[in-house]
Amino acid sequence: MKIQNPKFKFIVLTLFTVHCSLFTASDAHAMHISEGILPFNWAALWFLVALPFVAYGLRRLKILSKTDLSIKPLVGLMAAIVFVISCMPIPVPTAGTCSHPAGTGISGILVGPTISILVTAVALLIQALFLAHGGLSTWGADIVSMGVAGSFAGYLTFRALRSVKVNMTVAAFMAGVLADWATYLTTSVELASGIRGDSPFLPLFYKILIAFIPTQLPLGLLEGAMTSGMVVLLYKKRPDLLVKMRVLKAEEAIS
Amino acid sequence: MGDLGGIKRLKIMEVFSEHFKTGHFLSKVDARAKLIVTLALLGMVLSYKGTMFPLVIAAISIVLCLKMHIPVRILALRLAQPVLMAFAVLLLKLFFSGEDILFSFNLFGMELDGHKDGLIEGLLIASRILGGVSLLVAVGFATPFIEFMAALSWLRIPKSFIEITMFAYRYLFMFLEDATTIYSAQKNRLGYSGIRKGLSSFGVLTGSLVLRGFEQSQKTADAMIQRGYTGDLPLLKGKPLRTIELAVAFLIVAFGGAVWMI
Questions:
Q1: Cβ of B160 under 8 Å from any chain A Cβ?
Q2: Boundaries of domain holding B40
Q3: What is the pLDDT of residues B1-39, one digit of tens each?
Q4: Which of A47, A217, B139, B150 could form a disulfide with A140 if both were Cys (CB 3.0 to 4.6 A apart)?
């Protein structure tokens, strides 16, 4: 049997090459764009995109730290937690391998998207410098995909669902799912635009997106489950913290 | 669930470049000089239009790592994922980019065409990945964290950002140890014996870390306030850069620039 359909051919081969190469290592770190993948101009562009978000986050941190001296240690410790969470592999049954969660959904919910961008930027910098996951030149692109897209998607989903009285577990689950998928969608855009060369953007973007699907669709659901598990645990054990972080209103914590 | 990102196979501290910082010939070089050279060479690697320069940088960086007595096992572990990434991009470009057919073959009934222009583009990107990652790995092994932060401060990175990075780094190891301990306890009690159980255990693990983070941040802030913390951490003040180090950094960048232009 000879397969001639070019679309089918590219789907099968893309899945095979990219999926095997990126995701079969026991500790896959496909969330980060590796050092060197993006050419100079694209790396610089993503830095420019990330810069205003990071600058606004720093400004907000400065304002908050004037009234609350524990905010900087808290943001630093959240960054350490996001670092540790994104070093942990979780099983992806459909892919038969492990990938890792982003952790930006939960940090977006807990500390808000602008501070969560800082949290992500710090975790990414330490990973790039001392573990060679991600990179210095791709730091901007990684901040945009994990920090900006992940945090805002997680935060906005959680807030929107809570505002229409959706159960907290479901809202946190959806926030985790969409934060993860938003991260991968943005990563696909960044990768496709960076490595396309003279080829058209859209076909390569679809190929990368398809290659991510076997791992990222289930991983998003797992990250959703993890995020809702974390929020529920905090609600049961320390609802006062959720009130302090403005995730809950005081009356909701009492009830 | 597998082990924690290879953490179980290695000692926790061994995962970090920081662990290998002492006693090698580059540890005495000012972090600012190393950072200047790294950023300049990285810019050249990314903007070079061929494969030669990035591969030379990769080779030099790996030799430097070996000269710093970094175990080959650690080096291989650090480079494994970027090498796989480079390979994936190379295959993507070879088979799905370009028009000039270089070879064709049949794979499980599929007629595959490798393209010459796709191969060249793929090799360009793969060499950039190898050059960039090797450079970053070398500077990571060569520079202690605190010095790196002081160098970033010298480069006018906002102080607040450096402060929270230092807080994060200070507590990373504590959380890694906590995560390993909780994970081992859960695993011994069959917490990962099925997908559902594993997921629930993982949620408890990460939730416990978040709880610990909140509690620890308050304790840390209280302890620091008692010691006079007013919202700003003192950072390592760098001495003026020595002329010899600046000159060597300039020479390396100039030599790199000359090779880059060839």
A1: yes
A2: 22-143+240-262
A3: 444 444 444 455 555 555 555 677 777 788 889 999 999
A4: A47
Dump pLDDT digits (tens) for B55-113.
Answer: 999 999 999 998 888 888 888 888 887 888 888 888 888 887 778 888 888 777 777 88
Scan for tokens 């290879």, then name that residue.
B6
Q: Across chain B, which distance is largest between two alpha carbons, in Å? A: 73
Q: What does the pLDDT read at residue A43?
A: 92
Q: Which residue has the higher pLDDT, B234 or B214?
A: B214
Q: Report if residue B76 sits inside a domain.
A: yes
| 3-state class (DSSP) for residue A248 | coil
CB A83 within 8 A of CB A146: no
Decide if B29 is inside a domain: yes
CATH number for the domain formed by residue range(s) A33-254:
1.10.1760.20
CB A232 within 8 A of CB A95: no
pLDDT beyond 50 at A111:
yes
Per-residue confidence (pLDDT) for residue B129, from 0 to 100 = 92
Position B181 pLDDT exceeds 60: yes
Task: Give CA–CA dist A129/B71, Å, rounded.
Answer: 18
Residue B27 domain-assigned (yes or no): yes
Residue type, B207: G
Across the strands, what pairs with A91? A98
Alpha carbons A84 and B15: distance in angstroms, whole number: 12
Helix (H) and strand (E) counts in chain A: 12, 2
Distance of CA B69 to CAs B4, B26, B30, B65, B81, Å? 26, 11, 20, 7, 21
The answer to whether residue B216 neighbours chain A at the CB level (below 8 Å) is yes
- CA dist list (Å): A157 to A112, A166, A212, A232: 12, 11, 22, 17
Q: How many CB atoms lie within 10 A of CB A218?
A: 17
Chain A residues near residue B199 by CB distance under 8 angstroms? 90, 222, 225-226, 229
8 Å CB contact of A36 and B46: yes
| Residue A184 to residue A141: CA distance in whole angstroms | 12
Is B78 in Cβ contact with A131 (below 8 Å)? yes
Q: Mean pLDDT across the stretch B206-214?
A: 84
Q: Does B193 touch chain A (CB under 8 A)?
A: no
What integer best gives the mean pLDDT of chain A? Answer: 81
Instruction: Judge whether A94 is closer than 8 Å to chain B, CB to CB.
Output: no
Q: What is the mean pLDDT of residues A210-226?
A: 82
| C-alpha torsion B11→B13→B18→B24, nearest 10 | -50
Q: Is the pLDDT of residue A89 over 70?
A: no
d(CA B118, CA A91): 34
Q: Is the dihedral of CA B181, B184, B188, B192 positive or negative?
A: positive
Domain assignment of residue B158, yes or no: no
Q: The complex's ipTM?
A: 0.83
| Count: domains in chain B | 1
**Encoding tokens for residue A96?**
């038969």
